Amino acid sequence: MIVVPVALGDRSYEVLVGPGVRSSLASVIPERSRRVAIVTQPELPVAVDPGREHRVFLMGQGEEAKSLATVEQLCREFSRWGLTRADTVVALGGGLVTDTAGFAAAVYHRGVAVVHVPTTLLAQIDAAVGGKTGVNLPEGKNLVGAFWQPHAVLCDTEVLATLPEREYRSGLGELAKYHFLGGGRLDELPLDERVASCVRIKAEVVGSDEREGGRRAVLNYGHTLAHALETAGHYDLRHGEAVAIGLVYAAELARALDRIDDERVAEHRRVVSAYGLPSMLPPGVDLDELVELMARDKKAVSGLTFVLDGPRGVEPVTGIDRPVLDRAFEAIRERREEPA
Ligand code: GLY
């Protein structure tokens, strides 16, 4: 088992990584908790034992379930069961569950402890670590939420073997991001060390900027275009697939701004394709719509903001003009062969 500390003063916690670590759940729940509400989804092939009185609360599948309506429903069910402020919520599932249950825990009785047991690669290396919780609005993803640090996170790498192929590959999109945030050749590490390396990078960034005053935005590398592709909603892309396209787009943008050279762009393309992920825009994409959605991204404080690679590493860059955006779009568009 690998233990990665997240250093946040009195809100510090540990992320346990390795095969079978979900069996440590009972030992990481606060002693004062008499009851544990386990929030999960139907048909998840993973069970946990919190070692005290517990009840399972199911939420729906799909992004529509990540909503204020689900948070209300969970909180009402917690209340009817008699969950108190001393008790604990356990979020068992992918990022959808950890984000939604984490937010319910953040607001129920003005905050109860939450322990995340992420069951997807994506949630283990990103969503469940760092305290971002929240739900979607029809106007966009993750527009309502709270910073609410978990009490502990259990990244059980054994459960990743149960993931459908596309779900696992989607997680690799998030993993690809860490290659460019100091992770290096992550693909050469065994699975638990690979997960732990990503968690370590994330823990270090979150420890230095918990509330995204600045540096934490680097974790959004590849996500500005990714969120726009996802919010547009009519492209058949999983989150990690959208991030993969977003990473290559960010590299092309950085190239168009002379921040990086061709070799570094090629490195982005190589990592993304090594993980079997897409690097081109879906066919028939509406660029005006994507630009409008990117401008609405909640990280856009003044004009279009992107996290871009450059001589000082990955950092936020503001005020990028449309012609530069278009030049980078051109580099990730499928070209149709013209008939002779
Ligand atoms: N997923 C980006 C962050 O946690 O800041």
> Cofactors and ligands present?
glycine
User: What order do the SSEs take from the amino end to the carboxyl end, as H and E?
Assistant: EEHEEHEHEHEEEHHHHHHEEH
Rounded to an integer, what's the Rg over CA atoms? 20 Å
Terminal Cα separation, in Å? Answer: 60 Å
The backbone outline, from C-alpha atoms, is globular
CATH architecture of the largest domain: 3-Layer(aba) Sandwich
Number of domains: 2
How would you write the strand order of the largest sheet? Answer: 1-2-9-6-5-3-4
Average pLDDT confidence is 94
Please provide the count of β strands: 11
Low-pLDDT runs? none
Largest sheet: 7 strands, mixed
Helicity range: 40-55%
CATH topology of the largest domain: Rossmann fold
CATH class of the largest domain reads Alpha Beta
* Strand proportion: 15-25%
Helix/strand structural class: alpha/beta
Your description of this structure?
This protein is of the alpha/beta class and 340 residues long. It folds into 2 domains: 2-163, Rossmann fold (3-Layer(aba) Sandwich), CATH 3.40.50.1970; 214-331, Up-down Bundle (Dehydroquinate synthase-like, alpha domain), CATH 1.20.1090.10. Helices cover 40% and strands 18% of the residues. It is built from 11 helices and 11 strands. The chain has helices spanning 25-28, 68-81, 95-107, 121-127, 165-183, 191-208, 223-232, 239-256, 262-274, 287-296, 322-331; strands at 2-6, 13-18, 35-40, 53-58, 88-93, 113-118, 132-137, 140-147, 152-156, 306-308, 315-317. The strands form 3 sheets. The protein has a 7-stranded mixed beta sheet with strand order 1-2-9-6-5-3-4, covered by helices on one side. Strand 10 (306-308) and strand 11 (315-317) form a beta hairpin. Helix 8 (239-256) packs antiparallel against helix 9 (262-274). The radius of gyration is 20 Å and the shape is globular. The termini are far apart. The model has no long low-confidence stretch (mean pLDDT 94). Bound molecules: glycine. Glycine (GLY) binds at residues 126, 130, 132, 216, 219-220.
